[in-house]
Amino acid sequence: MSKIVQELKKGRVLVSDGAWGTFLQKKGLQPGECPEQWNVSRPDDVFDIARSYVEAGADMIETNSFGGNWFKLMGYGLENQVFELNKAAAEISRKAAGTAGIVLGSVGPTGKLLMMDEVTEDELYDAFKKQSIALETGGADAIVIETMTDLEEARIAVKAAKENTTCDVICTMTFDKILTGEYRTMMGISPTEMTQTLVHTGASVIGANCGNGIVDMIGIVKEIRQVNREIPILIHANAGMPQYCDGETTFPETPEDMAGRVRDIIEAGANIIGGCCGTTPAHIAEVHHIVKSM
Questions:
Q1: The predicted structure's pLDDT at residue 1
Q2: Which H helix or E strand runs over 285?
Q3: In CATH, what number does 3-293 get?
Q4: How much is the pLDDT for 204?
Q5: How many Cα neighbours within 13 Å face the side chain of 122?
Q6: 3-class DSSP state for residue 172?
Q7: Average pLDDT for runs of 10 along the chain of length 294
Q8: pLDDT score recorded for residue 194
Q9: Distance from CA of residue 175 to its chain's centroid?
């Protein structure tokens, strides 16, 4: 039985980590620079980010590998380093998490559209397979396929990770609230459609990340629970909706704002709670405090 399943069967709510990109930028990541290359060129800085979330109370730590697939790395001329960069990413987070913590190998979208014939299903499968194998080799306990908008790409990624690793496979999609009050991805996929397809494909955990603050995530969780009462749900919420002012993007939700809705999202049916854009170790520490008190 996997670490995640063991903990959830105890009735625990698990706390995940928060944003990584903002931290990398604060540490000097420049526009146009490959974040994943830091896993070999500046591993101490990457480790420092992971450790900060462990110290904040996160049970789970992601890896610095969101854009580590072949297609994304090709844009930096690093397509021959898929295994090296992903393995290093997992090793860094494994070191920070120790033996007790859970490492989530982060896998993001390729940026290629099947419907536009920019890529084939076999090419997507192969890219996700290679990345997932490298993350497991480096010590990942689970593969988290995240920020997906195309359900077919998400399905292929889940299939590739499930068929080629022994890791738990998690998949989250990014939804926006439309004028009717319903939630849809950029490609028009609903939480209901996501749930039906990804559970059938074999995902161990499903959910949503990015796109919304924690308040709107509650509605997404409720819709998933109307379809499936059993599948564990992971939510990585933004610190509110981004605001652009004076050349800078900020996120309005404070750690206390986010923590104030933790009970609501757990009551709606979430099992794992963490952060996405704009969240910090302070946000995760407050979430941890509320979860622990429950």
A1: 58
A2: helix 281-293
A3: 3.20.20.330
A4: 94
A5: 0
A6: strand
A7: 80 96 93 97 98 98 98 98 98 96 98 93 98 98 98 98 97 96 96 98 97 95 97 95 75 93 97 96 98 93
A8: 98
A9: 14
End-to-end CA distance of the chain: 25
Cα–Cα distance, 49 to 197 (Å, whole number): 34
The tokens for 66 are 């969101």
CA 158/CA 223 separation, integer angstroms = 21
Measured distance CA(248)–CA(266) in Å, rounded? 33
Q: Where are the domains of the chain?
A: 3-293
Fill in the amino acid letter for 2: S
261 HSE (CA, 13 A, CB side): 25
CA distance 263 to 145: 26
| pTM of the predicted structure, to 2 decimals | 0.96
Read off the amino acid at residue 28. Answer: G
Query: What is the C-alpha separation between 171 and 107, in angstroms, rounded?
Result: 9
Per-position b or e across 87-125, b if 16+ CB within 10 A of its CB: bbbbbbbbebbeeebbbbbbbbbbebebeeeebeeebbb
CA 287 to chain centre: 17
Q: For 179-184, which contacts have Cβ atoms below 8 Å and span 24 or more sequence positions?
A: 183/216, 183/219, 183/220, 183/223
Residue that is written with structure tokens 């999609």 in the block:
173
At residue 241, the pLDDT reads 81
Q: What is the pLDDT of residue 18?
A: 97
Report the candidate in 28, 62, 220, 227 with the shortest Cα–Cα distance to residue 139: 62
Strand partners, 176: 184
